[in-house]
Fold these 2 entries.
Entry 1:
Amino acid sequence: MGSVEREHLLTASQMAHFVTDGFLMLERLVPPALNEAVYADERSLEGAGYQFWHQSEAVHHGIWHCAQPNRTERTRYVFKLRLRPGQVQRGLFNTEGYDSEEVGAIIRRGYQRWQGNEARLDHVQRARLWRYVTGDDSIDVSFEGALTRMAR
Amino acid sequence: MSTLRQQVLIMYLATSALASPTVAWALYDGASPARARQMQTGDSPEPPYASVLEAMRDGWNLFHMAALPTYLPGHEHETGHLPYEYALERKVEADG
């Protein structure tokens, strides 16, 4: 990781949102003009889905999946996750401020209705995952410091 | 000849109480024809009923209640699938 500038990495706040929600939305990752160009091609190009690659000059398979026709009126969600299993996934983001009150509050406020009676257990799991991704086995953002208290 | 068919509604509540809020659900409609589209994940952000009790009031019959969770020593903080699962059914006239 040494060669990657910190400004290109996820911030501590972004990583806390990922740990809390399980996803991040990066709205501007692909410039809107490129998205609209592919969208226009999807609406206008005819033929079998597998021909789309050859017909559209805008599409790039590393950015858009669209291996099969949607022919759109939009709603198309594909989530691609590429992992590096050869590297331990700890401390790989821009960790600046990871132990701040502001970042910790993202995880503490991560309660969702579907968690029901187990909401505090889910909070403890988020706090455990936060310890893992930050590489700090003593940071405690769990419910009422449960991780610290239970370890005694 | 009767054309009654079964609908099954699986509901997950916030707690074990039948009046507690619905947090997840799935509907399987045996009264619909094979070509019909069944309920899909994300079809609605709102549950069909606010609770199992509300579904019972609308004529659904409860036929499955999950056993309460058991917390083993040393594993009290672990999470798994949604624990408060209820399956309901009702008979309706077949659709087509």
Entry 2:
Amino acid sequence: MAKAKMMNESEFAKLIKEFNAVGELIRARQEEKQSVINAFEVERGRYKAGKISRKTLDSSIKKTNNEFIRLDKEIRKGIARVNFLGTGAKQLASKQAPIVFRASSAGVTILTKKKKSVKKKAVRKKIVKRKVVKKKK
Amino acid sequence: MKIKKEEVKTKKLNESDLASRIKELHSLGELLRVRQEEKQSILDEYNSESKRFFLGKLSEKTVKSSIKKTKEEIKRLDLELKDIINQSSKKTDEINKLILSQKPEKFKINFSGAYHSSKKR
């Protein structure tokens, strides 16, 4: 019996769900990054007002820079994940390219492409030059 | 004169834009599946018709018209399927592009505040 290709819906739904999740994760990390910047600005304001020492601010700078590195890493990881998921989604979709069927009075048949017959190249015969033997007089 | 300092802002992913694109991709996937099922039902229908012909319940003329109809339907569905596949591929590219644009900017913090380390001060 002829069967048309069927897309794996659950796999596709899973991909979509993950797309959403990774998108949300990226947004969350971006917001976290913004909040880290804002927190540092507040700290700097306090330093300017003389409420905290330079040493404290120094340690805060170090901490903030480390936080940036961590968050940037996570964002990049998310981007890479989306890229990977995108490739998967594309592959899944391209796999669904329709099979060509043909209906005839004998029933439904699948039209498959005929393989091109590879012609073998004719091997050239080596031309052997015969040495001309001179007859001794 | 006071110089107003530029507020440092991180990139923000447009969530609603991403959600709408993902939604579109989802609907394309569903549409693809629907068309595949439609194709299958047409094939099944034709199979049952050809069986009835073999049993002598249908005339050759009827089967011939059925063949023509089925061929046209399959052709239409195949074209639609190909179009949906192309569209979903494009949509995936769009999502990838949108996410890629969120590549993090490098910030650096010092005593004078936060600044883009890539931009010249």
